[in-house]
Amino acid sequence: MSIKLYSLIFASLILFACADESPISSVQDNISEKEQQENEQREKEACYYGTSYNSASWCCSNYGYQCNTAKSSSSAKSSSSYKYSSSSRKYSSSSTINYYYSSSSKTSSNTQKSYLTKSKNLKLTLTYFKQETPDWDNTLSMKNYADADPRISFKIQFRKNDGTRDSVMTENLLEKQDTGEWEGRIDFTTTVPIYTDSIYVFPRITDADLLINDDYSSGYGYGVHSIGYIKDYEVWYQTDEENKQCTLKWEWYLY
C-alpha cells in the first residue's frame, strides 16, 4: 500500500472522530428534549390547577401561578388581579395572572374536584359606584364630578375545562340621574351550570343620554378559577380596577 493511500485513510479516520455527533445521537437528543417539554407542560398545568406536589412558592417562581394564594381566615378573597380583556379575547399584557383557592376548603378527598360536580346558585351584589372623571354629560364644564347618569349591568360567564362557555346578562342593577357617587346593595341571582371550573364577571357601565348612551366600560372581566374548591357562602370581593372613568365594586358567592 502506497504512502499516499495510508495518508488518505488516516485523514478519513480523523474527520470521522472529530464529528460533533452522529445522526443517532441527534435523534436521541431530540427525543429527550421532547420528553422534557412534555414533563414541563404537565407540571405547569398541575401548578395552574393547584394539583402540583411542589409548593405554591415554587409554582409562583417557575410559572407565575399561585403567587397570591388566598389564606384569609374570614374566607373573603379578592380576585381582581385576574383580568381578561373581553374585546381582544386575549389576556392583557398588563394583567397579573394569579391563581386563587381557599386552603381551608381544599381537602385530600378524592371526591372533590376543581369544577362543580353539581349546579349551584350565584348571588352577585353591586355595592359601590363613583364617578372619577368630570363632565360625563359633555357640558364642557370640566368641573362637574356629579353629572353621571349611570346604567350598570354585568355579564357573568361560566367556563368549563373543555373550553365551552355559558353566560348570563343581568338587567341594569343601577339606574341613577346626576349621581357622582352611590353606595348600597342591589342583588342578582342566577344558576351556575354543573362542571363549571371558572367564573368571570364583566361589568358594563354606560351613561344615559337622549340619543346614544356613552359607554364607560373598561372591557375587562375578572375571574376566579377552581370553583369546585370554593365553600358555600364564601364571599369574593371584586372591583373594576382597569376602569379609569369610575370606581365600581361588587361581590358574589355560591350556595
What does the model show?
The chain is an alpha+beta fold and 255 residues long. The chain is built from three helices and twelve strands, in the order H-H-H-E-E-E-E-E-E-E-E-E-E-E-E. It has helices at 3-17, 23-49, 56-63, and strands at residues 77-78, 83-85, 120-131, 150-160, 165-169, 174-175, 181-192, 196-207, 214-215, 220-225, 236-239, 246-254. The strands form two sheets. Strands 2, 4, 5, 6, 8, 9 and 10 form a seven-stranded antiparallel β-sheet that branches. A hairpin with a 6-residue loop joins strand 8 (196-207) and strand 9. The longest helix has 27 residues, at 23-49. The chain is elongated. The protein starts with a helix and ends with a strand. The relative contact order is 0.17. The model is unreliable at 17-31 and 70-108 (pLDDT under 50).
Q: Give a quick account of the main beta sheet: strands, pairing sense, barrel closure.
A: 7 strands, antiparallel
Helix content: 10-25%
Termini separation comes to 93 Å
Reading the helices and strands in chain order gives HHHEEEEEEEEEEEE
Strand content: 25-35%
Radius of gyration: 28 Å
Counting H and I runs of at least 4 residues, what is the number of helices?
Answer: 3
What are the segments in which pLDDT stays under 50 over at least 5 consecutive residues?
Answer: 17-31, 70-108
Q: What is the approximate shape?
A: elongated
- Overall mean confidence score, pLDDT: 76
Helix/strand/pairing category = alpha+beta
Number of strands: 12
